[in-house]
């Protein structure tokens, strides 16, 4: 079988804090050569002229909910992985709160089987911890799965881990990255009870960040961090939403040496509580979108490296579900297709450099989860690449939203930057709103 070759010419390559002009030669699935100029000396080479475009490593989204199995009226691995490719996300790590939940090795393997058949992007999964599955956690092959997910607040089913003794045992028992959702459930329940007494079920959405308060977030995240320090566990705190929490993290050592790390999501960098008036429950997330001051402090911590990763927490629900009254409207929204364009919009506004976007969405998830040969544009690495035109505006509208749920919190927004090509494991899989019929996705492997 002939080796497939692709040559990307005249690119502005963004990698490891630098932007430089050059060409990229791909042979099979792998980046073979990066140079200032590579001549097309093969008869069968596919040439992509990237003149005027930037080439980024494919983004790695460390937190998505693709809803399969069991919740596939909202989303599934096939639909959402395609939306991810259109958004420049070439690899995803999916969460365990499906139905059934991914809390046994058997259920984990079933999800890998689904993804092997239907995923359009590279994939891995988190294993879910509960109050009573420590035996299953100990059976997990730490080299074959992205990590362990614990809900320390706000979970479906029995995934809330609220027994302090069990929690400490889990922290002591695994070398996996323990990723946590931190909101103190007792604080939230008390706040919710008070608001229901005042408003009934139809609580104004503007009260969401008061119910799921700064105090609830800080209490939970500071407790988790104290436990990680006590046990030596490797802790990753998902979706920070408050300025107060950012002071719990350090930036004086390289990411690879950190035992405690943090993530921020697109919606907490983009929206504030002022947006509830217009967007309503469409921007109801857990943790809640909070104040403009919190948003400013999250940006500050992202840029000074106290926050290590930008992710989506892509969590679709149907529009009918989202239109329910406050207590019945689920939290979460779809984001994978629009995350990178939204961050590039922030580049245009002078908030962040392209190099920093690449660091937080590509390099750092690869370092943090020890993803093998991805997240960088390097010779010998898998060719997961995204070509971006920074001056090709488009508007998010119903007919170009690819999520199964059919809506986006960004609907009506115009982005200046367009993803023109997505290359996955050396194959062109997406080009200008069209998908190619290549089955190129692979299961992520980890360098542990």
Automatic annotation (TrEMBL):
InterPro entries: Amidohydro-rel (IPR006680), DHOase/Allantoinase_Hydrolase (IPR050138), Dihydroorotase_CS (IPR002195), Metal-dep_hydrolase_composite (IPR011059), Metal_Hydrolase (IPR032466). The keyword Metal-binding applies. Residues 54-429 form the Amidohydrolase-related domain. Its EC number is 3.5.2.3. It is an enzyme of class 3 (hydrolase). The keyword Glycoprotein does not apply. GO terms for molecular function: allantoinase activity; dihydroorotase activity; metal ion binding. GO terms for cellular component: cytoplasm. SUPFAM superfamilies: Composite domain of metallo-dependent hydrolases (SSF51338), Metallo-dependent hydrolases (SSF51556). Keywords: Hydrolase, Metal-binding. GO terms for biological process: purine nucleobase catabolic process. Its cofactor is Zn(2+). Belongs to the metallo-dependent hydrolases superfamily. DHOase family. Class I DHOase subfamily. Catalyzes the reversible cyclization of carbamoyl aspartate to dihydroorotate. NCBIfam families: PRK09236.1, pyrC_multi. This is Dihydroorotase. The lineage of its organism: Bacteria, Pseudomonadati, Bacteroidota, Flavobacteriia, Flavobacteriales.
